[in-house]
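Quick log. Single chain, no ligands specified.
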Amino acid sequence: TGRRAADPIPHRQAILDSTTRFAILGTDRDGVVTDWNAGAARLFGWPAAAIRGRGIACLFTPEDRAIDRPGIEMRLALEQGRAEDERWHLRKDGTRFWASGEMMPLRSPEGADLGFLKILRDRTAQRQADEALRKQTALLQTVTDHLSEAVFRLNEDDVVIFANPAAEAMLGWPRGSLIGRNLHDTAHHHHPDG
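-> predicted structure:
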């Protein structure tokens, strides 16, 4: 047809750089960074020119480097086809962020190992929200465990999703056995002894 195919390298980089919510990076077989998208630059704080040629270990915490977590991920990726992780990672400035990620082997069409592809997403806000909720739940549990009044929490179908010890004692149910029961049916119609 006379039309030339587009140059695949700039096209590939344009695709990678348009994905800014995910850090996408490539390494060689030794874990040395070879590719780095705009999302990785935003998340880690390293411009592509400054990170290329560095080992991927610089993105891991000192604790993870001490147990060779980068090497473990690469081995798992080769053995199992992927290595998933959720852990702290390091930005260029040394601050930490929580990320969920996956590492996969890069292979040639003939099956030769070329290196690795790692994709990460910042989950710091979610982890902080989960931790705050865990602390709030633990505090609420401590308070309600020591009340002499019955405390229930129900879902939209009136199913018990929380009952303190006083509530269980009041109704005569063993600890934890009210969870998952409809409160109206359980409390208004019978006791466990009939």
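The chain has a mean pLDDT of 85.
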